[in-house]
Amino acid sequence: MVVQSVRFKHTNVIHWKPLTAVDFFDRWAVDEIIVLDVSRNKKQRNKFYQVVEELSQKCFVPLTVGGWIDSVNEIRKLLRLGGDKVVINTEAVRRPTLIAECAQVFGSQCIVVSIDARMKEDGTCEVYIDRGQEATGLDPVGWAREVQKLGAGEIFLNCIERDGFRQGYELGLLQQVTAAVDIPVIAMGGVFSWQHLVDGITLGGAEAVAAANIFHYTEHSTKKAKDYLRQAGIDVR
């Protein structure tokens, strides 16, 4: 199922079948689709494999998949099922050498490292893993530099406090991370207006901008988003 989230907590079901959402996205001329298994355990993992395979047969844009990825073999399986790229998060922190191993086997262009950051009371940020439940003590900027060195091809940056809160990206964090690395950074978390997408690129320095909740409703199409970005002087496909 496709779920809506607020600060990584699932609030309601948007679609019972992910294929329904992908049908909309294909019609809306989306550039890329990112599908994450956000289940709290791996009991339904075989269903996720089935979803990836079915999506790949209907999806005519790059398909990036993630969630519960902990080995080269797991990535190989997801790619064989039709994924084009994979997103690694928790296991990348617990075993950073996995990033290098995967980049060597599949190429850096295939490996996206997701960084979930949470704001602390002193105004600094900390990397969290295990679906936003476990603090790591890592600084997002320093961790971003490290994953680049290890061979990641992209960074998927999400601010937990912004997720579902409709206040736009955490631009301060986004600016720091994009300034620290040379690889593309995809901004995620908090989009409620097309201007937030513009801000992520022009103010945050992101190479790409992603959103979830705003696109769960048919009146909010990526075509409208792209038109707005073009009007703002941003080159989009």
From TrEMBL:
Its EC number is 4.3.2.10. Coiled coil: none annotated. Keywords: Amino-acid biosynthesis, Histidine biosynthesis, Lyase. One of its GO terms (biological process) is L-histidine biosynthetic process. It is an enzyme of class 4 (lyase). The keyword DNA damage does not apply. GO terms for molecular function: imidazoleglycerol-phosphate synthase activity; lyase activity. The keyword Flavoprotein does not apply. It catalyses: 5-[(5-phospho-1-deoxy-D-ribulos-1-ylimino)methylamino]-1-(5-phospho-beta-D-ribosyl)imidazole-4-carboxamide + L-glutamine = D-erythro-1-(imidazol-4-yl)glycerol 3-phosphate + 5-amino-1-(5-phospho-beta-D-ribosyl)imidazole-4-carboxamide + L-glutamate + H(+). Pathway: Amino-acid biosynthesis; L-histidine biosynthesis; L-histidine from 5-phospho-alpha-D-ribose 1-diphosphate: step 5/9. Pfam families: His_biosynth. Heterodimer of HisH and HisF. Belongs to the HisA/HisF family. IGPS catalyzes the conversion of PRFAR and glutamine to IGP, AICAR and glutamate. The HisF subunit catalyzes the cyclization activity that produces IGP and AICAR from PRFAR using the ammonia provided by the HisH subunit. This is imidazole glycerol-phosphate synthase. It comes from Desulfobacca acetoxidans (strain ATCC 700848 / DSM 11109 / ASRB2).
